[in-house]
Amino acid sequence: MTPSLSLSGRRAIVSAAASGIGRVIAETFAEAGARVEVCDVDQQKVAEMRQHHPAIGATCCDLADATDTERFFAAAVERLGGIDILINNAGIAGPIEPAESITLDAWNRTLAINLTSHFVLARLAAPLMRQAGGGAIVNISSTAGLAGGALRSPYVASKWGVIGLAKSLAKELGPSQIRVNVICPGFVEGDRMERVMAGEAAQAAVDREQIRARYMASSSMGTGVLPDDIAATILFLVSDSGKRMSGQVFVVDADAM
Known about the structure:
Blueprint: E1 11-14, H1 20-31, E2 35-40, H2 43-52, E3 57-60, H3 66-80, E4 85-88, H4 104-132, E5 135-140, H5 153-173, E6 178-185, H6 191-204, H7 208-217, H8 227-238, E7 249-252
Parallel strand pairs: 1-2, 1-4, 2-3, 4-5, 5-6, 6-7
């Protein structure tokens, strides 16, 4: 049988997806035939998403607020008539500074968005997927979820947590034919990574290009990755081509680890 990457008839929710990696994932799903709902905290980006992709539902939502997250999810499911695919894409860089300088508020907000929002959306999606006979969840972690990182303790802790959450959910939900996997991107070209490099450069009192060169040198291919690379991997996992894959961690980093 020829594997299929079609998502025709599938219903997908992608969090934090009005820009960056999330937007490319949503666009890829729509091109593959899925009906897609996204959320984002940036009202301008949401408005742009609605303008450029009217077939993709876009809603403002603060994923650090569990009540707001639940509201978005309920409305999205009502519009879709159910859910087959959940992509937990939400994540912020958090503070870039020594652990002793990080406030508890900054720590809590980083974990609320990067980890707790994944849990909230997954626990809402699971019973609906079970009723539908199965589904697919993908959590976006990071290569930072597989290694430590100086000056990044909230971010790294949250990304390790994302992997642990997904592996636990895979064991729990597998009997209901709900697959749960993790993607760990490395250096992804885009505005967010530019901000991270600027923060690291400021802490180290060096030029941003020195930080970029360090990242590039860590890859055997001498390159970062693009949002398209992440979206293509996720499309495979949530399609019928990946129907026997669950509980796994997939690194997309141009061999930088």
